[in-house]
Amino acid sequence: MGVKLASQARDDETDRAADAAVPGAPADQAVATTEEPAMETRGLNAWFGAMQVLKSLSMAAKARSVTAIIGPSGSGKSTLIRCLNRLHEEVPGARLTGSVLFNGSDLYSPGTDPVDVRRRIGMVFQRPTPFPTMSVMENAVAGLKLGSTAKKSELLARGEEALRLAGLWDEVKDRLSHPGGRLSGGQQQRLCIARALAVQPEVLLMDEPASALDPASTLRVEELIEKLKTEYTVIIVTHNMQQAMRVADETVFLLSGEFVEQGPTSVIFGQPSDQRTADYVAGRFG
After folding, report:
1. Cα 86 from Cα 94, distance rounded (Å)
2. In sequence order, which residues have a C-beta less than 8 Å from that of residue 152 and are 6 or more positions away?
3. Domain parsing of the chain, residue ranges
4. Of 3-12, 42-51, 52-61, 85-94, which gets the smallest average pLDDT?
């Protein structure tokens, strides 16, 4: 099964325990982690044309945990996670410098295949993006069909597994041949999560995944995130401070494209080391 395969691959790696801090960050802004980060940026700068969006940004995300990225509009949150799986470069005029490390390897090193990067680091966008005329099952396995020689039975098995992981199977098992566009908004978003999970990524990036959903659907997505972190590294962008407090193990605060601080979510929201963070989480600006 997909989760088993992904976890076995990760478990094969040697666990190393050492205190780790965000490279280039002050000592009092250390990342509270005792293991090698799954993803890390070092001195990341990103531009759209002449406009610089990220400025020497260094942060880290631990494996099998949820890292929330918060900050006011225009702080570079969405740009950051698009840099993490090489979607940023798909925008005309976009460029970056610095490093993005995944399990210690630079994703932007020469010879690295961006398609392979995006298979291993999946993305779920703000608004549900199912293929409206494709069936529910076809949506779930869409990523698997790209360059795949898998048999139909294998595709169906992987599709079912992904739908179960996304908490959607029981709701759609009798409608697998119906168009994905006919599902409710919350179901469509979980279908998109299933589509990302079907290719068995190691990291799942989520850009405001519940901002377009009603409260009940938001709760389902948050419950799903809580389950997924046992097997996946989850990095989520959110404007919702309560959501960050509910789902995230660690939180990163960005302001005007710059890293301000990172730490356990309880610390960031309870006793942040930077006054700008305290002002933001208290709602004094943003």
Report:
1. 11
2. none
3. 2-281
4. 3-12
Q: What is the pLDDT of residues 18-35, one digit of tens each?
A: 333 344 344 334 444 446
User: Locate tokens 């850009």: which residue?
Assistant: 207
Reading across the β-sheet that carries 121-124, which strands appear in turn? 121-124, 203-207, 233-237, 66-70, 250-255, 258-264
- Residue range 2-281, CATH number: 3.40.50.300
Q: Could you give the 3-state DSSP secondary structure of residue 12?
A: coil
Q: What is the pLDDT of residues 174-223, one digit of tens each?
A: 999 999 999 999 999 999 999 999 999 999 999 999 988 889 999 999 99
Q: With CA atoms as reference, report the closest residue to 135 among 186, 195, 210.
A: 195
Q: How many helices (H) and strands (E) does the chain have?
A: 11, 10
Tell me what the mean pLDDT of segment 77-100 comes to.
96
d(CA 158, CA 144): 9
pLDDT digits (tens, 9 = 90+) for 217-239: 999 999 999 999 999 999 999 99
* pLDDT for residue 29: 41
pLDDT at 271 > cutoff 90:
yes
Neighbour order of strands in the sheet with 51-61: 51-61, 39-48, 94-102, 105-106
Q: What is the amino acid identity at position 120?
A: R
Name the region of 121 (left: φ>0; alpha: ψ -120 to 50; beta: rest): beta
Q: End-to-end CA distance of the chain: give it in Å, rounded.
A: 43
Strand residue runs (E) in the chain: 39-48, 51-61, 66-70, 94-102, 105-106, 121-124, 203-207, 233-237, 250-255, 258-264
